[in-house]
Amino acid sequence: MTKQLTRDDLLKAYRTMRTIREFEERLHTDFATGEIPGFVHLYAGEEASATGVCMNLGPDDHIASTHRGHGHCIAKGVDPVGMMAEIWGRKTGTCKGKGGSMHIADLSVGMLGANGIVGGGGPLVCGTALAAKLRGQPLVSVCFFGDGASNQGTIFEAMNLAAVWKLPVIFLAENNGYAEATSSNFSVACANIADRASAFGMPGVTVDGFDFFAVYEAAGAAIERARQGGGPSLVEVKLSRYYGHFEGDQQTYRAPGEVQNIRETKDCLLQFARRVTSNGQIGQAELDAIDAEVKALIDASVVKAKSDPKPGEADLLTDVYVSY
Amino acid sequence: MARKITYQQAINEALDQEMSRDQNVIVMGEDVAGGAGSPGEQDAWGGVLGVTRGLYHKHPGRVIDTPISESGYVGAAVGAACCGMRPVAELMFVDFLGVCFDQIFNQAAKFRYMFGGKAETPVVIRAMYGAGFRAAAQHSQCLYNVFTHIPGLKVVVPSNPYDAKGLLIQSIRDNDPVIFLEHKALYTMEGEVPEESYTVPFGEAAVVREGHDITIVALGRMVQKAQEAAAELQKAGIHCEIIDPRTTSPLDTDTILESVEKTGRLIVVDESHPRCSMASDIAGLAAERAFASLKAPIRQITGPHAPVPFSDALEELYIPSAAKIVAAAKSLKEYR
Amino acid sequence: MSAIYPITMPKWGLSMQEGKVNGWLKQVGDTIEAGQEIVEVESEKIAGAVEAVAPGLLRRQLASEEDVLPVGGLLGVIADASVADGDIDAFVTEFQSNFTPAGEDEEDQGPTPQKIEVKGRKLRYLKRGEGGEPMVLIHGFGGDLNNWLFNHEALAADRAVYALDLPGHGESSKDVGEGSLEALADTVADFMAAVGVDGAHLVGHSMGGAVALMLARRHPARVRSLSLICSAGLGEEINSAYIDGFVAAGNRNALKPVLADLFADSSLVTRQLVDDLLKYKRLEGVGQALSTLSGKLFVNGRQSSVLAQGLGALGKPVLVIWGEEDRIIPVAHARALSGGVQVEVLGNRGHMVQMEAANDVNRVIARFLG
Fold first, then answer.
1. Which one of B2, B198, B204 has the shortest CB-CB distance to C284?
2. Are residues C32 and C177 in the same domain?
């Protein structure tokens, strides 16, 4: 049974979702100036998924993430200030400026890394889960992956491996409807990604990814089952991304008004705020205060990132090996 | 006389001793035990050629059979290494690299750098390689050069039982991802191997034979071919120095260059295909850094730019022979 | 007709299959005394000189510098001037046609080392020869029974000779306990009891000499005589840079210059010797064993135990052999000895004098024992 959310939990969930949103909206704005190197894939719109899942995890549980990984990082506890510096290519970044947006990782909080290879994380979580199982630790591992990765062989192999080894793994499919510029209506052969769970003899559920509470409950049930030794599950979260595959994607493949409509009617933060204020659990002023704190944090992170030093020539060849 | 065991036994002993020393060491792969889920015997195979036989019962729960699912279990080994396990994953034939390379070169090899030095991935991937078993094009390749190209990986190619044991123990204790390649034609080779545990460090070439006329750098099984050739050449008054790099990454360039500077002649014997090979790499090294010492052109003796053939008649032509080394050495000695 | 004597490639150690000619010390026509060094040859492990087995003229050199011959192969021929050239040629032809080098499989391995459990420790030893008053050979710090490669067989001509690996060395257990001289001496005494040797002539090299001395003090009934070669325990001075360097060296480049101090002629430090020592040093437990021993026996650059004063009181015949150029333990320690101790100093030889001047050392010990 999933843990009942306390007031503090609700505040924490809201703060996490707001931090992700603010982080991504700010990147969207700043990327347009051309100052941020490389390319970024923004998570805005999907906040309820990362937050709803990670609220069920402790720091020793592991997650593997995707190229669209900022939200997973923040929800798992990676410091947003270091992340911002990383994305700006600074030596002070989470990965010393050597990884960038697609490779932010912090093993100290169980974050195995965003991943530039679609479907790359599936096998990795089988390993972290195997380690926990062999050591007799009640730890779980979550593999976030998208509708695009759902068609990769690595994900199928990982699901089968997790099932035959009965590993504490949750395959968390974030189906935002598009793999790059290709619709999942075209690329996924079955109606729901979750339908594939039965092929591997594991439970599969589909939940509304705009609803934090629905994600929290569904992921929580799967995580608890895994923690108790019940084996892997597949949870499909249906949601939407507010921005393109990467920044600069004009999204001409989407229907006119599609994103606008979702933002106005389904947005996870709007839904969450409406629910917790209307039932009297949290006051609007408290949420406003969080909004202001988060904005100040993100503003400060950008100011710091811009002024922090970039790595130098001496850093080019370090960190390739532990010893060589 | 010290105890003699085979290359295959040396590998088994290294795994056994390391599994006893450290509970974090696990062995995983297709049929590394064999018999999982079946009604008959467990540890039925102990690896497709029996290399891991017996470990299953000695180390309960830590010799783990996998589905035929290389990406899945190699990636799982990498993930387990990220949280402190020391997995030894067996990729039965190195040719199966094709179905799991991403987990090795984009994941394991890159973590430490991409994550700013915060990751350690002490995974070992063992694989059989090499021609001579009539196993044809998809079960006979070398491919150490492919791994050697990738920063973040270490690549080990032992040529004898002593090195196999010491290098495998070093591989398991090493904190970086290591590709440990076993030539299948060497499994039955016998040699003196201490009973105790010991390590052979990476990046330290062995000087297998000393000589002042020609340097022969040879890898893996080719060390034997070079020794045969050197014995033959000795009778003709040509004294060869044989260098076995033992690891291609890191590569002991100093020992190779010192020898070339002494002899002024270099032959590199490499069983893999010629283009972008260890042979071309080492030849390039000598050309760039020992040019002034060279008295004759550098010769590369490799397999041809063709897949490994099946028919024994063709496969014998494919594999570099001692006769080819002898002929090359004589032509270098007579050059100018 | 006077005799014709072949000079053949010697077999130095169990693994030697062939040797390389490094150079002739005598030329065709030179007069040779028995025991004189005639030709220098080199195995993978060591270089040395082949001695004449009989007097005469060097009549033929059948191998030239750089030639590699199998063990037993014909290097040259010694015969009196009276022997006709034709007879020598016939001898050579016959020798060559009858000679077949020992293959690796059929090769006569001779005696092989054995292992024995002594008070929970596994000790490796090699026994050669039978009968007589037995002898025990005790190697030095970082050595093993192979340090007696050139002595063991000669010394075993008329007696049983045991060479053992001390704890922490060779293929013996690597646990050295507290690492004291007393403990090492007791282990050797226990070893003697285990192999059924009540009393023996002890020959100790370097640290092994100090072990022999300590054994004579603690277990006098087990000791018939002492032959101490470049021995520890006879003075305070020791080359601590060598000890520390040997303990610390982790690779060839670090170890090779350290080993140069062992020999008067540094070229004797072959690559094989360096590689063999590295193999030993890389065995689990060796680093700890060497650190423990050096920390106990060689403290602050001095030897902890000086036992020279008690030599006379032992009441045993004592022979001391030293290489004059010893750069590990100074020859002064030998020269300072007095009263009833036979001292032999060999010029132009270093610390590993039993290898560098094997024939001389073997002869001195044989004469000393009568």
1. B198
2. no
For the segment B172-208, what is each residue's pLDDT rounded down to a tens digit? 999 999 999 999 999 999 999 999 999 999 999 999 9
- In CATH terms, is domain A7-305 a member of 3.40.630.10? no
> Do the domain assignments include residue B279?
yes
d(CA C139, CA C354): 11
Query: Number of structural domains, chain C?
Result: 2
SS3 assignment, position A205 = strand
Tens-place pLDDT, residues C106-119: 455 678 899 999 99
Q: Could you say which of B192, B219, B244 is where a domain stops?
A: B192
Q: Please state whether beta strands C56-61 and C298-299 pair in parallel, antiparallel, or not at all (unpaired).
A: unpaired
Nearest to C126 by CA among A153, B184, B102, B2: B2
Whether C120 is in a domain gets the answer: yes
Strand partners, B25: B86
Element (H, E) at C20: strand C18-24
Contact (CB, 8 A) for B123 and B177: yes
In this predicted model, what pLDDT tens digit does every residue of C74-106 receive, in sequence order?
A: 999 999 888 999 999 999 999 988 888 776 554
With contacts defined as CB-CB under 8 Å, which chain B residues touch C271?
207, 210
Q: Could you say which of C98, C122, C146 is where a domain stops?
A: C98
pLDDT in tens, B287-317: 999 999 999 999 999 999 999 999 999 999 9
User: B206 vs chain C: nearest CA distance in angstroms?
Assistant: 9
Q: Taking CA C248 as the corner, what is the angle to CA C243 and CA C252, rounded to the nearest 5 degrees?
A: 105
**pTM attached to this predicted model:** 0.92
Measured at the alpha carbon of residue A7, what is the angle toward residues A4 and A8, in degrees to the nearest 5? 100
Smallest CA–CA distance, residue A65 to chain B, in Å, is 13
What residues of chain A lie within 8 A of the CB of B87, using their CB? Answer: 127
CATH of the domain at B18: 3.40.50.970
Q: Which of C171, C250, C271 sits opposite B2 (nearest CB)?
A: C171
What's the rounded Cα separation, in Å, for the pair B10 and A311? 45
Strand pairing category for B206-209 and B240-244: antiparallel
The sign of the dihedral angle between the CA atoms of A104, A107, A109, A110 is positive
Chain segment B39-71, per-residue pLDDT in tens: 999 999 999 999 999 999 999 999 999 999 999
End-of-domain residue from the set B128, B163, B192: B192
DSSP string, C61-127: E-S-TT-EEETT-EEEEEE-TTS-HHHHHHHHHHHHHH--PPPTTT----S--EEEEETTEEEEEEE
Does residue C20 belong to any structural domain of this protein?
Answer: yes
| Number of helices followed by number of strands (H, E) in chain A | 11, 7
**ipTM (interface pTM):** 0.95
DSSP state of B111: H
CB of B151 less than 8 A from some CB of A: yes
Q: Which two tokens stand for residue C220?
A: 């006098």
Is B283 a member of any domain? yes
Q: Identity (one letter) of the amino acid at C242?
A: Y
- Full domain range(s) for residue B76: 4-192
Asked if residue B246 and residue B150 are part of one domain, the reply reads no
What DSSP state is assigned to residue A149?
Answer: G
DSSP annotation of C342 reads: E
| B175 and B248, same domain (yes or no) | no
Q: Residues with Cβ < 8 Å from C159, sequence gap 6 or more?
A: C129, C130, C131, C132, C133, C134, C135, C201
CATH number reported for the structural domain that contains residue C89 in this entry: 2.40.50.100
Q: Mapping DSSP to helix (H, G, I), strand (E, B) and coil, where does residue A249 land? A: coil
> Does C69 lie in the same domain as C44?
yes
Range of the domain at C119: 114-369
B167 plus B46 within the same structural domain: yes
Question: Is B160 a member of any domain?
Answer: yes
Buried b / exposed e over C187-215, threshold 16 CB at 10 Å, is bbbbbbeebebeebbbbbbbbbbbbbbbb
B62 close to A (CB below 8 A): yes
